[in-house]
Amino acid sequence: MTVSRLPLDGIRVIDFSRVLAGPLCSALLGDLGADVIKIEPPGGDDYRAIGPFAHGESGLFGAMNRNKRSVVIDLKTADGQTLAQSLCAQADVVVENFRPGVAARLGIGYETLSARHPALVYASVSGFGQTGPESRRPAYDIILQALCGLMDATGAPDGEPTLVGDSVSDVVSGIFASWGVLAALVARDRTGRGTHVDVSMFDATLNLTAGLVARYAATGVAQSRVGNRHATSAPFGAYRAADGHFVVAVLNNKLFAGLADAIGQPGLAADPRFASDASRCAHEAELRACIERWAATRTVAGVNADLSAAGIPVAPIQSIRQALDSEHARTRGLLADAAAADGSTVRLPTQPLKFSAYPVTRTTRAPRLGEHTSTVLEEVLGLDAATIASFAAQGVIAESIQENDLV
């Protein structure tokens, strides 16, 4: 029997983060029912001004800030810091991704907030963590991909180091941050005390490259670039057909024998060069030539049909459009329609997890800047209209700022 509430209903998150890693962390919590209150400066989150734009709003901002309420507070004012501290005292979780030391200067550091609210779970997402010689260094995804070995391990053997095709350092840091918050909430239920969750994008990106790290830890040898093939297995990579490319993944002798039969060369399975995964990897070039001679007279669709029928793991190389427009993605509900601020419809990414005991996770549009300032201050802090109006007149807070009014 399912229940009507989502897993994090009743959890309140105060989100001071901006751009990608921190906002993704809080968005994932909001998907599961948490009340995420996004605190923005009068100029708003930088992502509001980054394209692509649809319906006058940033698609990137919309995706990373779904299921949130926006409150504008100027943390450079004493009253603004007091308001923010009071909101945090009524919360379960705080998320921030300032450089170390900045949150403390703004009056919302962990020491200040936890002294007032010991049960608070406080997540800091930064480029290099709260400690270490690089901790004050700013970071962007490309910086982390470069420093963590990801670019060095990506690309053709005789080519240049290559960026992975999305901001994976930011994304994996946001995922680890949400995981850390949930672990801290479980521990708080047992102990009654919160904790400071220190999330380093450098650490998270190295953990993302789990295979590279494991190989180095075991052998002391850093993996070099191998292009579109596996470093230690074959045939396991991308191959050319008549009209494009496809991938296969063969990790054992049984699968290899099946592949050899499927491409009309059953004798390959008995060839000493291809007798084991290690020997196949050592002779990957000869094996590739055999596969691509067979595939050269077939389309990618034909290759996939033939190898799938033989039970070989195979796939075409799809674009993101093809992936998201696929019947499987639609069945899994990986994009959801939501009502935009202007009443039109926007598509937003959804929580990838499914829970048998809970309904489908929610997906609502990102808020307009300051859209919920009055509502939150009244609801959470009990402030009356006159007090809220006074703060607004002083520039401590702001309400419903239109994106085209930002400078």
TrEMBL record:
The keyword Transferase applies. Gene3D superfamilies: Crotonobetainyl-coa:carnitine coa-transferase, domain 1, formyl-coa transferase, domain 3. This is L-carnitine dehydratase/bile acid-inducible protein F. GO terms for molecular function: CoA-transferase activity. SUPFAM superfamilies: CoA-transferase family III (CaiB/BaiF). Signal peptide: none annotated. Pfam families: CoA_transf_3. The keyword Transferase applies. Coiled coil: none annotated. It comes from Caballeronia catudaia. Keywords: Transferase. It comes from the Bacteria.
